[in-house]
């Protein structure tokens, strides 16, 4: 169980980093677009990815607290 939780924490952390990078890249790319429709679409997708990254951060926080409660005895 311990190993699986660590693997999930690692997967979540990697996903959060990837989504935040993608979000930033989309926002930067949207700033260079001259077409208002493309700009809105790119910003909308960036916003969705940003929200998903925040959701994953919440999952990471809950799982890491659960991991600490289960496996860190304070010794």
Count of helical stretches = 2
Shape: rod-shaped
Strand content is under 5%
Helicity, as a percent range: over 70%
| Number of separate domains | 1
Largest sheet: none
Distance between the termini: 20 Å
Q: Would you tell me the structural class of the helices and strands? A: mainly alpha
Mean pLDDT: 94
The low-confidence runs, each spanning 5 or more residues with pLDDT under 50, are: none
> How many β-strands, per DSSP?
0
Could you give the order of the helices and strands?
A: HH
Please give the radius of gyration in angstroms.
17 Å
Walk me through what this model shows.
This protein is mostly helical and 75 residues long. The chain has one domain. The protein is built from two helices and no strands. It has helices at residues 2-31, 36-71. Helix 1 packs antiparallel against helix 2 (36-71). The longest helix is centred in the C-terminal third of the chain and has 36 residues, at 36-71. The radius of gyration is 17 Å and the shape is rod-shaped.
């Amino acid at each position: 169980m311990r190993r699986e939780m660590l693997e999930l924490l690692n997967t979540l952390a990697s996903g959060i980093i990837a989504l935040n990078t993608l979000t930033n890249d989309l926002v930067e790319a949207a700033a260079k677009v001259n077409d208002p429709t493309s700009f809105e679409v790119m910003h909308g997708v960036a916003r969705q990815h940003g929200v998903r990254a925040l959701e994953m951060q919440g999952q990471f926080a809950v799982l890491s607290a659960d991991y600490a409660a289960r496996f860190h005895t304070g010794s």
